[in-house]
Fold this protein.
Amino acid sequence: MRQMIKNRQYDEERALYHLKNTDVLNCVFAGEADGESVLKEARDVNLKDCSFSLRYPLWHVRKFSMEYVTMDEFTRAAIWYASDAEISNSVLGGIKAVRECTDITLKNCKIDSTEFGWKSRGIMLEDSEIVSEYLFMDSKDVTLRNVKMKGKYSFQYMENLEITDSELDTKDAFWHSKNVTVRNSVVRGEYLGWFSEGLTLINCKIIGTQPLCYCKNLKLVNCTMEDTDLAFEYSEVEADIHSHVLSVKNPKSGMIIVDSLGEEIWDEPVMECNGKIVLRKDADITDMEKMGRAG
């Protein structure tokens, strides 16, 4: 039989340890005892209109939901080793809020959490705002939709990432990532995508210096670039860019079609570089067909 806990305050160590089949409503997890792991090992728990200010509250939790929940900056490492969760209309404010989790959906959330989402799998982040450094490092099967993101060093060592209709303001994004697709998004930052494999950007605006170097199987489809210089160094690339590019340097292979180009640089490459750079006005039918196949 399902239980309900309402209008209570807990601050003891493991106060609701291994809680099962319970709705927790309008409760406060904070106080002088400053106890850790208040809901550790819980099962089938729904949290609504609750607030947290204690460390490690939801470790090893299975099948849970959070709605209108607030976790402040003292709620460190809030959700670890957890699975099968829906989090909505909530605020996650502590460092390392999600780690080594599986099948977590977050909607309409505001997140300010350094090192968020590490080593996780099956994470969906939708209609949300997030501030983080090293976001989702070493995670797999992650989806972002309509997300405003600000931070540094995001999406490193990831596999199987899809981002749609989002705004990313991030430095060193997608380094060493594999199988990443970004659609209809703005990506702002320095040194985008270095050492990535299978990175595809479709209908995106790319802003910032020295993007997309040392890439394998890189594709840009109907994209624009702004303030981008020294792009594509040592990359295997097929790119259709509908804007001006400040400079392209030593592309390893493939074809880059641009509206206009400030400078084409072939400068003492350390490997064989045979990439082709074509101005759109000079592209022939064969070039455009290649771009179609690349897309």
User: Anything to note?
Assistant: The longest strand covers residues 236-249. The two ends are 54 Å apart (CA to CA).
